[in-house]
Amino acid sequence: MASDTKERGRRRRGLMRVFLALTVLGLILDLLDPRGRSGTAAKAAGALSEELRIVSSADLNRSAPLAPGSLATAFGSRLATQTESADPEAPPTSLAGTSVRVRGVLALVLYASPWQVNFQIPPGLPAGEASVTITAGDGTVSQGVTRLTPASPALFAADFENRVPVGTALRFRNGVQVASQALWQPDRWDHRQTVSFAPIDPGLVGDQTQLVLHATGLRGRASLEDVGAIIGGISVPAEFANEHRELVGVDLVSIKIPDSLVGLGRVEVAIYVKTDGPDGWIFSNSLLVDIGSRQSFNPPV
Q1: What are the pLDDT digits (tens) for 56-73?
Q2: Do β-strands 109-112 and 116-120 pair in parallel, antiparallel, or remain unpaired?
Q3: Which pLDDT band, with edges at 50, 70 and 90, does 193 fall under?
Q4: What pTM does this model have?
Q5: How many Cα atoms within 13 Å fall on the side-chain side of residue 72?
Q6: Is the distance from CB of 173 to CB of 185 less than 8 angstroms?
Q7: CB within 8 A of 55, min separation 6: which ones?
Q8: Is-contact 96 114, C-beta < 8 A?
């Protein structure tokens, strides 16, 4: 019972890290807004705002096609009349009076502020160019265009510097899970409540460690064989890749850590997916994991 409670608490902390990654930038932009969170400006209500910049919510710095069912972030101005966050497990189609349509289909909205809106690309949309229209509570309409592809992965980071993945390391011995640990830990020396790397304990000789990473844009892959990862320069297949059971728009992908990487410390990890369209192989953003050394002894047989 105690172990189940501990596991639920660890999982919940991981979910909240994903939610933080989805909202923190918008909050910062609101604080920097000289006009205040209301976004008051000289424009008349109902006016057409400037064009949107639309990216993956897990990778705000990269221009890449987006996948139906994935989480997207739109940047602009006067996107909402106030700042509000939704329940990430049950977001509405209208938040703080703001709604989003992709190719005319209403999207679920997870976060709304004058400068940033996070939403889920409606599942089932076909590949190709897609219009995005955001209507704020005061009638202001903002428009943009993105490109859709069946799958386009991106990894969520737990820290502001986008280095540490949101995820878990699971250790197995003789096919049985014996340990679980988060890939991040609170930074005790930083009062901003940031996080740092949690070194992965690979355990004893013969133990196998799997990473379970939080991502978005994977659920549209044609088959599991089309998903893999590059970790420490080594290509490995995905053991699992599917949508999260609780968080809307979030996917989980699991990969094994090769024995040759044990003890190397921080190495890069990125996931990729093969698509049938013109994009071919699409790679996610690269993050870092800290792989520790094995214990120097084995228990008696």
Answers
A1: 999 988 788 999 999 999
A2: antiparallel
A3: low
A4: 0.84
A5: 33
A6: no
A7: 61, 62, 63, 64, 72, 73, 75
A8: no
